[in-house]
Automatic annotation (TrEMBL):
Transmembrane segments: 33-54
Sequence ranges assigned to domain RNase H type-1 in this UniProt record: 2-73
UniProt cross-references to InterPro entries, sorted A to Z: RNase_H-like (IPR053151), RNase_H-like_dom_plant (IPR044730), RNaseH-like_sf (IPR012337), RNaseH_domain (IPR002156)
Name assigned to this protein: RNase H type-1 domain-containing protein
PANTHER family, alphabetized: OS05G0353850 PROTEIN, REVERSE TRANSCRIPTASE-LIKE PROTEIN
Alphabetic keyword roster: Membrane, Transmembrane, Transmembrane helix
Single Gene Ontology MF annotation: RNA-DNA hybrid ribonuclease activity
Amino acid sequence: MDGATLSSPGVGGCGGVFQNCRAFMNGCFVVPLGQMFMFEVVLIVASMAINYVWKYGWRQIWLESDSSYVVQLPFSRSGQVSHICREGNQVMDALSKHALGLEIDAKWFSTMSFFSMLVDSDYMGRESFRFS
């Protein structure tokens, strides 16, 4: 899961991907948000991800986020939370940025064309690098 804002505060959006233990995608979501601070966006996306997990009956929860706010959530009773570097979070980053241009929420249960190459790279374990 990941969130994005155009500034802080600014127009926000968030997205998440649900994968099984073999990295197959079970579904994903994007949600455009109004004006908010970045820390609000990442807390909202964590809450949404947990709600979707329970709604669809997936009981094994492991949240990955590049946000220190989310990683420090007290979540040990029903799941696991871990930090993932931005380079390993490219699919979710693409989804959250996609949400910035939407007017309504969207959910998919298959890979959409605008991020399919990132999903394939993630599934195959390809490394990604960030150059500043």
